[in-house]
Each structure stands twice: as C-alpha cells, then as structure tokens.
C-alpha cells in the first residue's frame, strides 16, 4: 500500500475536460414547479480530471456558465498539480477565484472539480470513495422528494406512495406556490401514504414570516408534517429563527441548500439569538464538494446540529457517510432521473437508504456517452 500511495503522490493532473448536458423534465406540459420557480430542464455540468492513466469525475447542477467557469478559472489551477491532496487543491482554487466570484456559480464549478479530484484519487488507490473518507456510516437514509406544485393529485399521490412502496419511510412535497391549494394536496397525500410515513413540506422560500407561521401550525396539526424546509427565504435568518422558536415543537425548520461557503452555514447556527434552523442542509454540488462537506460536517458536530444531504444522490451517498451527525439524503426526482440517464453505477435505495458500492473504485460511476450525447450543450465527446 505504501508503494501505491507513493505512486499517487507522484501523479499530477494531465488534463481537465468539461461538459454540459440539458435534460428536459418529465413534468406536466414539460414543466415542473415549486413555490418560487418553474423550469423545463435540468442542466448537469460534468468535470473530468485525468492523472496516472485514470479519470475522476464530478458534477454540479446549474447553468452551463458553471462549465465555462470551471474551464477558464479552475482547470489552470490544478493542471500539473499533484493529486495527493484534493483538499489543498480545493482551497487553492477558492483563493484563485476570489475576485471572479466565489459564491454561486463559482462555488458550483469548484464543487464539481473538487468531487472529480477526490474521485480520481480514490480510483488511483483502487478504493471506493467512501473508504478514502473518514466515514462514520456505511449507508445514508433517504427521503423521497418531488411532489411538484403543478402535479395533478393523482400524479402527486402516485409518486409519493411509490417511494413508500420502495421502503422509503419519509417523503416530501413542494408547497406554497398557491397556498389555498395546499390543504387539498396535503390531505390527498396523507390519505394515500397512511399515518406511518413521515411527511415533509418544502416552500422554497415562498412565504412571508407570519404566513409561514400560520402554515407551520396547520401542517403540524392537520397532516402531521415534521419537516418544514425554507418556509421563508434562506437569507431571512431572523424569519427562520422566529419560525423555529414559535412554531410547533415537533416541526423542524430546515435550510442550507443555497449555502455556498462554510461561513454561510455558520450564519445559520451561530446567531446571537440562537440557531435559525433545527437541521442544516448541504448540497455537495454547491458547498465546495467533498472538501466542503467535510468542513460543514465538523461545524454540525461542534454545534450539535444534524446535517441533511441535499440531492445529487450518487455523490452524496459517499460524501455523507463521513458526516457524524447525519440525518438523511434528499432522493430528488429530477436528479435520480438525470443520474440514471447519464451514468452507469447508480445506486438504488435498499431498506430506505443508499449504501455505497464498495466493489467499485471512486464514486463507482461511468459516463454513458451514447445516452448522454443527445442532451449535450457544451463540450465534445471523448474519442
């Protein structure tokens, strides 16, 4: 093993290539909606890093501009660098993009490159990525997520009962685009899934503070909702804190999916008036990749706040095994579709959890280039 490690230390990045694919949604009339957004496609930005005859991959979900950012600003930072310390390269990239813009697109591009570096190192060591990380768990519990606001009641209940039938004991629907419709939607869902599964709601920041407090009470009392995600905008720390303090005791307030730096997460839990959330969320494709998740995991442990994984299940299943205060992973309908379309090696829930495949090196993913090609919007298919 020492000889293998020494050879990895000697490996330097030969090349970086970047691709983007845009996959239409399967929603009604080709659209999906949540409380504050409507979309007709999901874009996956793929980064591949090459060294020592192996290739690591990482990706993020966002605009194609994240791909050009990765190519122009980040690839030059890592080309020719040793692959031995992905975290060091990640911090070097973060420093280099200070003036170009670290939050937002910059953080998403950095996350994709960081994941590719960790995947590459694991492949060079012939280890599953989870075994390269300081893992506390061998699986990550999931909750089914979708339930878009433009679904019919039949499609809504069918989707959520489908997850329950797969053994997933917790499910989430989008709410609050048209609050006057939510009572009917929640009643239909609760009747369809029964009393036992946990029911979550996600407003995507659509509500004002007092309106959110009103719905928090109703969600809890009438439909036994236990998780209220972004009832107000994630930048409204005082509003989140008010809901956490004044809402029902058994209804948890969650946010963090749009946090890009470790300080963003600290702001959610370190206010002078107390934490703004009961559970943090982190998206490995936005918060700095594997390196970012490890930093945030330390914060959640020190602050005694659980951490939930936001989406990107194929990466999160490995990354969040390294989170001691792990809660669960959002098994998001769109990302499940996209990852199954583009990659071989995708995991399926078993007993309500995803377990990393320890028989495959790295993330265990391979690109299905022929299937991906019709959706390409940037880059060139490898020879």
Q: End-to-end span in angstroms?
A: 33 Å
Share of residues in strands: 15-25%
> Treating each run of at least 4 consecutive H or I residues as one helix, how many helices?
14
Q: Tell me about the biggest sheet?
A: 8 strands, parallel, barrel
> Helix content range of the residues, please?
40-55%
CATH class of the largest domain: Alpha Beta
CA gyration radius, whole angstroms? 20 Å
What's the structural domain tally?
Answer: 2
CATH superfamily of the largest domain: Enolase-like C-terminal domain
Instruction: Count the beta strands.
Output: 17
CATH architecture heading of the largest domain: Alpha-Beta Barrel
Mean pLDDT: 97
CATH topology value of the largest domain? TIM Barrel
Key traits:
383 residues, alpha/beta, Enolase-like, domain 1, TIM Barrel, eight-stranded parallel beta barrel, four-stranded antiparallel beta sheet, 17 strands, 40% helix
Question: What is the structure about, briefly put?
Answer:
This protein is α/β, with parallel strands linked by helices. It has helices at 2-10, 65-78, 86-96, 105-124, 129-132, 153-165, 179-193, 209-223, 237-246, 262-269, 289-303, 313-319, 333-342, 369-372; strands at residues 15-24, 32-33, 38-39, 41-51, 54-61, 140-146, 170-174, 198-202, 225-229, 252-255, 279-282, 306-309, 326-332, 343-344, 353-354, 366-367, 376-378. α11 links the parallel β11 and β12.
